[in-house]
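Could you join me in thinking about how sequence relates to backbone shape in a protein? Label the sequence line and the structure token line clearly, so we can match residues to local backbone shapes. Once you have written the record down, we can walk along the chain together.
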Amino acid sequence: MPVTHTSVDAEAAARLVAFGMRPKQLPARDVVYGELVRRYAEDNAFKALAHAVASGLGLMVLEVNQQAGAVLAAVDESIFEIKMDSYARQAKIRERRETEKVIHGLIHLAAAALAYPRPDDLANDTYIGRVSVEQVDAMVREAARMLDERAQQAEANNDPLADAPELEQAWRAYARRPAAAATKDGRMAADTTRGMVARALRFLADQGFLVPVSDEQGGTYRTTPRYQIQVRELAADAAFDDLLALDVVAVASAGGTLRAASSDTLQ
């Protein structure tokens, strides 16, 4: 039975989606991938077919370009959706209690806010952010301190905050944990907050969102176009705006180097 043009197109569209599921593969490093990305940009029928293939697999195409490749996101209940248990295995998280899940959510939220603290950063395709373990830890700790003060003031005014108890427990649990401690063999203790942040950033690097650049500040990473596209989606979340509104992120230079405000809270 001869292969029809439609089936060839479907195979090509599926191959483009498959490339997108390999987070560290880029069009610049693969001729076939680069050609599929070019076709996606120039052929609306092929673009629609790629979206249909992705949708059938429970995926959404966020963007396709030569810098990032095909960037995909799993829809709710998709087989490709990363559940906490799966994330816990990949990030080597020992405990999977609800509070622990929320803490890791806060860490990822802080990393994104540090990487792109200004709307212009997300809009500029050439912008490269940097984040470090110490920066993320400092930001979450400072946010926890500010939220704890807010909660105490609200309680004093007999006006409890409307935040979910789970979230309040997570902030307080994070603040109570030590920032850093070493194991007997000199490694970062897994149950410290910096240990948790380090695992989260390594996970993002494994997904092609960050690239390690040095061991400074507990581990420093630069962002990738793939991460920028993902954070653009996250920026629509109210929690992202709420975290930035706390004003615990500051831009230290015109070049965009970032630091966590009030980093002395780690001392």
In short: The longest helix spans residues 133-156. Residues 250-267 have pLDDT under 50 and may be disordered. Strands lie at 59-65, 69-74, 130-132, 210-214, 220-223, 249-251, 258-260.
